[in-house]
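Students often ask why inverse folding is considered easier than folding. One informal answer: many sequences map to the same fold, so there is more than one right answer. In these notes we will look at a single instance of the problem. The structure comes first.
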């Protein structure tokens, strides 16, 4: 499937995988794809930047490690001092060793359902417009055309006008051909 993706769109998906890992997730969500799109040059990054979004600002809003983090309060109720455990682990295995133990070890991360729908929507949009290659703009349209996903929630949280963003991406796609 990715052979039809232009290089920057393909790299955005690779960056999305890295973003998911950075957040300690075991799946690549559409919010990670959004971050990947912002990191790569193209219609999507241009439109997102013109909408006032930056990679550091969006990245700070992506939740990290839900359901897998160590809960200091719960451990304390069992008589375990998480800070003491962290210091001992860092001393024995190096800084951050306890946090790294929660990261998935697989090279490939599976895609969440909303990411699969994003890819399907991007391919569909490109096909409907007679375009053979999938670009970053198509991926952003794939995100925006879904009624409910992590990336749309993130954009809404930042106050981004989704209709204006979609119109901007469509304009950029039409002038690129």
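Output (designed amino acids):
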């Amino acid at each position: 499937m990715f052979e039809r993706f232009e290089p920057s769109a393909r790299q955005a998906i690779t960056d999305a995988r890295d973003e998911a890992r950075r957040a300690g997730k075991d799946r690549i969500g559409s919010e990670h794809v959004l971050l990947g799109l912002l990191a790569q040059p193209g219609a999507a990054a241009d439109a997102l930047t013109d909408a006032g979004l930056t990679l550091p600002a969006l990245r700070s809003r992506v939740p990290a490690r839900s359901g897998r983090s160590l809960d200091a309060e719960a451990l304390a109720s069992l008589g375990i001092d998480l800070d003491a455990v962290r210091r001992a682990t860092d001393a024995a295995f190096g800084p951050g060793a306890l946090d790294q133990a929660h990261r998935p070890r697989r090279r490939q991360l599976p895609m969440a359902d909303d990411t699969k729908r994003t890819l399907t929507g991007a391919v569909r949009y490109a096909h409907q417009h007679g375009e053979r290659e999938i670009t970053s703009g198509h991926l952003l349209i794939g995100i925006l055309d879904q009624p409910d996903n992590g990336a749309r929630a993130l954009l809404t949280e930042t106050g981004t006008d989704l209709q204006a963003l979609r119109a901007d991406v469509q304009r950029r796609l039409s002038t690129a051909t």
